[in-house]
């Protein structure tokens, strides 16, 4: 057994790799094109030794976990005889369940959501034009009030002490949204009917016959060094703050971003600054960050939460739910109201990023629906909110909500939750190409900001045409086609060529998804329309050209749902199914993407049984049958 090298280079030691100690540069660093340095230190003996590497963030985080659990065990011993039911001690208010029974109509919300208007036919000329649409609304509902509990129940760490064996809310989904019609897909048959066609009972899709993506060592996953940017102790830290807990939170977020964010390097520094700032605010905020980090850590280890993890997620959900319930949008909200709404929206967005992999699609849709009035209250007092200004200038929580609203709309067939003012022209797209860093939303999920606006613009055209009982003006469709041909989206830049290629493929796949949405959702074409078939083939060609793997497949899954509606060949359907189910988080029956795949199976089965091509309306019907919404 060889001993660990004591005279290796700094880079190898930092990565916990055995150094070959070649001078002046070791072979490993030479192959990677990295700087190589031997930093010798003085020792009490004559033996040479290089400076040891700092302890890895994971080791510090593990110590923080032990520290937290030691505290929890001590508190549990003290409180065991006084707390019979832990979950009711967590919050100042009793939890409001995420269910239809918790929602009620309120006429006072009507002025908030703008009604559909007739489409305006705009003249086109050689001069630059800007076209605008107001996206269609979905009437939101207000949450009912709940009784208050005592202030002593507000400790979030106490929630960790009292996690019991109660059922997770995810087990209490209404019977009309449970899933049972299709068996798990296999390489031979991916959708087989096991009940009547009209049944709305489904069985979750599993991946028994589909190989999982290999796991890599932590330092190999973090090719871009996200952990090194985020996991560092602040230069100035309040002495009253536990640095171990902070390092635990920073390490959890860095790991989560490496797995769930399209280009985490763009936002690593901002994330570090945001976490350290929030950690210094108050004990309540720190406790929430610790709980969020604990849920993230459990999901990183296993995408299917155990009983304790479900209790933690339920606790987090209930606490955040109190901050969004009862919101009523005001025409001119005060600065204090906007500040309160901004804080509440921050928490919703944080929960949403976990929801998409740990909860059914119905929960995500309801969470977004309930957060819509909070979003409108957090916007500057211009209604309807200007989507271009939000994507270019607004805070991250507003940008994220817009992206989530658009993404859920185009993958469920549902209208947008809010009405936006959406100016559109090719010239406006240049505004996005001039921005760098963490502006916009492209770095989050790989969907370019220009295409977010275009999807929303087309959604408004579609909804207005449906309301008026007419078709969208063909000249508008031709102009969108021309804009798509001339649209320039900057390529991704990065140290790792494979990541850059994967991100470029995701970006181009979204282009093809735009064409499918244009022809099927806006023009009313079916899956056998030559224009739709061309875009579908283009998408599949791009997807097959790149090796399957976590990156880019986790970010290809969303446009695959759009393309799946237009997919008729069995081999292409199997490719989509296998690529999505190769990701372990999507095999979880409680994951939103697993539900989305069920929707595709429903569309494929119904259209085959009825011997017809799929239409865009089938997606909305599939969403209703799978989620009950």
Automatic annotation (TrEMBL):
GO terms for molecular function: DNA-binding transcription factor activity, RNA polymerase II-specific; zinc ion binding. PROSITE patterns: ZN2_CY6_FUNGAL_1, ZN2_CY6_FUNGAL_2. One of its GO terms (cellular component) is nucleus. Pfam families: Fungal_trans_2, Zn_clus. Residues 8-38 form the Zn(2)-C6 fungal-type domain. Keywords: Nucleus. It comes from the Eukaryota. It is found in: Nucleus. This is Zn(2)-C6 fungal-type domain-containing protein. It comes from Rhizoctonia solani.
